[in-house]
Design brief:
Rossmann fold; homodimer; 11 strands; 3-stranded parallel β-sheet
Chain lengths: 278, 278
């Protein structure tokens, strides 16, 4: 079977064109505060790409580097100060965080109206109840990519591999809201392939390179690869072993060029949305 | 096969004994405000049973009846006032709500430290992230009933039938936290039996009498019945057709006498916990 490549570039371009036009309509440009507290090269690369994306769309971006040794208290104080600052529309906290600090330790200090990556408990609770709020961009990107490629979700069985607070769990909520039957699998699932092979759509969001192979996939399934793992040569590779899945799956999103650009575009759209809350 | 009955009465009695001793240790008894805005006989019966349960445990209980025509604004104002009242430790909003009012319209007016049934967006977000907060009592009762009967969850495949904000969705979070693989099915799942029959544990929380029959259940599965549907004779019946499941399932929780008494006991335990936040 020919496996269709579910690219995200066209969709990202369309979202970005819309965001750029909307951003230009503000008397004062939408402003994102990007909080960093690590010395990780991959994070620095991603922060730089976010800054460039913002610049292209007419979004102001302040990068605040608190250093890799920042304490929970420092992070909370910075997030609370930006939440209270009327000049800042949107806040994003970059990971990884300093050793010993988890996202849950500090995320509640991001005010929900500025929480453009939907990481705070309140944002996640609004998502769980179906109330308006910002949804984690990566989870939303999976849904938007499927919609863009006209892959229906109503009544479909979707297996989500990974139960992180920023991808797997919020994605399960979005899929349920879209009327899919949803199975969440994870590292403690004893026979992963037995579960994923029963699904019509498999979303790989475990953060393990090459975890999902042909034997994990039903014939003609759709496969969405959320993984962004560093490869030996310094590039990124997904959670899906594309060579073994291709020819068996009906469709597969590439890494890079699938979920990734849509995630960045949605983050920037959220920043423009947040500016609308002024 | 002999199907074990997973009764909740012993567990509820043990929880209640502990709550009663803890409640007695407060100089001023823990106080629950029970907000009612309906004229539903089943609700009145349940409110009365909660009042009696509170009384037996030494918990003060104020019933506030806002009438079946209460507006969103009236409900929000009442919930906010009780949230701000230092004499009130805990707040529970009884359903059904007036026509046109949903729980999501008003639940965010319940302050999280008093939200003993875990219905507010913040409470649900704390649950999703694994942070401390009150968990919806019915969802928690399912987990506690399984633990009490020593039915392990790690690595087990659990099918939850129903995706309500107060049972199905929070239960899925608790099951994931307990390392189960979780599938959430619902009214838009095209072939329910095909999904539930692959699970080792099935939780019926759809609110439809007799929905789950023998054909929905794998041989030797464990079945938890969360349903409380009114029967023709004025009693309550579960979502499980017990006659058709018995003899096939390894274990089944009865209705009444299964999840129900544990739910009430956990609610009361939460009231005592909330009093500890004074």
């Amino acid at each position: 079977m020919d496996t269709v490549s579910l690219t995200g570039k066209d969709l990202a371009a369309a979202i970005n064109a819309d965001s750029k036009a909307r951003a230009a309509a503000f008397a004062v440009a939408p402003r994102l505060a990007l909080i960093v507290a690590n010395a990780d090269p991959a994070s620095a690369w991603y922060v730089n790409s976010l800054r460039k994306a913002a610049e292209r769309l007419g979004i102001a971006c302040d990068t605040v580097d608190l250093g890799a040794d920042a304490s929970v208290e420092t992070l909370r104080a910075e997030l609370a100060a930006r939440s209270a600052d009327p000049a800042v529309d949107a806040i994003m906290l970059q990971t990884p965080l300093p050793a010993g600090v988890t996202l849950d330790d500090v995320s509640s200090s991001i005010a929900a109206p500025k929480d453009v990556d939907g990481v705070s408990p309140l944002s996640l609770g609004l998502l769980a109840t179906g109330l308006p709020g910002f949804v984690p961009a990566t989870a939303e990107a999976v849904i938007e990519l499927l919609k863009h490629h006209e892959i229906p979700l109503v009544g479909k069985h979707v297996a989500v591999v990974g139960r992180s607070n920023i991808v797997g769990k919020p994605l399960a909520q979005l899929l349920l809201a879209a009327d899919a039957t949803v199975t969440v699998c994870h590292s403690r699932t004893p026979d992963l392939a037995a579960v994923t092979a029963t699904a019509e759509i498999v979303v790989a969001a475990a953060g393990r390179a090459g975890l999902i192979t042909g034997k994990h996939i039903a014939e003609s399934a759709t496969v969405i690869d959320v993984g962004t793992n560093e490869s030996a040569d310094g590039g990124i590779v997904g959670d899906v072993d594309a060579d073994s899945v291709r020819g068996r799956a009906a469709a597969l999103s590439p890494v890079p060029g699938g979920v990734g650009p849509v995630t960045t575009a949605l983050l920037m759209r959220h920043v423009v949305d947040a500016a609308g809350n002024r």
